[in-house]
Amino acid sequence: MAAARGGLTTTWTVTTPSGGRHLYFRGPVPAAGRPALGNTSKMLGPMLDTRGAGGQVLAPGSRLPNGGYELVDDTDPALLPGWITWRLSVRQPTSTSTPPVRSSAPVGDRSVYVAAIVRAELARVASAGRGGHNAAVFTAARALGQLVGAGVLDHGAAETDLTRAAGHIVTGPCDCTAGDITASITSGLAHGMRRPRRLPPPVEPVIRSAHRKESA
To answer: Strands 21-26 and 12-15: what pairing?
Structure first.
């Protein structure tokens, strides 16, 4: 995975008793809409765990019965590569996640309602700033996936529109690749389709009959 992107830059490195390595990086600065990276297990791949805000590891010099933690490279921690930040930014929904807000207001034309949601989500992606790309793409894809699951939006059209809206991410000053974007779109759509959006019922037109008063 790293080799396909030219490998990892040199950074502060510690070896572990089991033969593994701890690579230390500086994470992106938290900001509005971009929380600090947390802890993950196998999210980047098999046997790859990460520690961020709220996490901890044994420091070099620590000893265990089977060996110790040894500092093998004291280079100052490098900035976390953008493609890793991208992958770690996705937060998979859990059973305790807050369900999406659903409007209960009736609408006369569902196509107008659906089109408004699509426009808003595509605008979210198109205006996403560096550091918030993955979250914006995944969130928008999940919202459109709910419409696909409800049977009111074509899957192919949603995928195409999201990819087009995210075009600036690949061409801009970011380490995100087209493959990263495709993966987030695919994942977001799949999550949304498993939880179809509950659409408000259309308003039936009221037909009033006109009675002409007969003259006596």
So the answer is: antiparallel
Instruction: Give strand pairing partners of 131.
Output: none
pLDDT reported for residue 2:
64
For residue 216, being part of any structural domain is answered with: no
Range of the domain at 40: 12-80
pLDDT of residue 44: 77
Tell the burial category of 145 from Cβ atoms under 10 Å away from its Cβ (0-12, 13-18, 19+): buried
Query: Which is nearest to 84 in space by CA: 58, 57, 45?
Result: 45
In a domain, 198, yes or no: no
Angstrom distance (rounded) from CA 195 to CA 204: 27
Supply the pLDDT for residue 21: 92
pLDDT for 81-137, tens place per residue? 877 877 777 554 443 343 443 433 333 456 777 888 888 898 888 888 777 778 888
Q: How many residues does the chain have?
A: 216
The amino acid that residue 111 corresponds to is S
Q: In the 3-class helix/strand/coil scheme, how is 117-176 assigned residue by residue? A: HHHHHHHHHHCCCCCCHHHHHHHHHHHHHHHHHCCCCCHHHHHHHHHHHCHHHHHCCCCC
Q: Is 182 within the bounds of a domain?
A: yes
